[in-house]
Amino acid sequence: MKILVLSGSPRKNGNSNTLVDSFIKGAKESGHLITRFDCAFKNVHPCIACDKCKPSTKCVFEDDFETMKQEIIESDLVVFASPIYYYSISSQLKMTIDRFYSIDEKLHKNKKAMVFLTYADDAIETADLVLGNFRGMFEFLGWTNTDNIIAPSLWSLGDVNHTDYVKKAYELGKNL
Questions:
Q1: Topology of domain 2-174, per CATH?
Q2: In 3D, which of 166, 148, 174 has the Cα closest to residue 26?
C-alpha cells in the first residue's frame, strides 16, 4: 500500500509527530511504502484562489507542495496528523490541505484516510469539531475514514509517551 503521512506539527519531537513516527515504524515493518511530508518544515505557499491551476493542475507557486502532489494522487491511504490549536488543525497542515484544490479532480477516487489529533484540552468535543471538518472533506472526496487516534490531555512535550496512543499508532501501521 502507498501511504502518505501529512504531519502538521511544528515540533519535531512533539506529541503528534511521536504518533506519526510510531505509525510509520509499524507500517514499514509490514512492507508498506511511506512518504512523509512534514508541513511545518516545508515551503508551502497558501492558496490564493487565482484559479491558474484549472484545468492544468499546475499551481503558480513552485514550492514543496508541487514536488509531492503526485504522492497524494497515487496514495492508497492518507494520514493527517496535527495538534489542535484554538479548535482547529495547525495552520501548516491547513495550508497544505488548501492546496489540494489544484489537483481536486484527481483526488475524487477511492482512498482511505486516518486522522491523528493531539491536544491539551480534556474535552472530547474539542476533537469533534476538527473531525467534523475532516468528515466533510472525506465525504466530498469519496474517501473512507478507516481509523483515528484522538489523544486529549497532552499538555506538555512528550506527554504522549506516557499513554497507550503510541502503541495504538504502531499497531494501526503494523496491521494495515
A1: Rossmann fold (3.40.50)
A2: 174
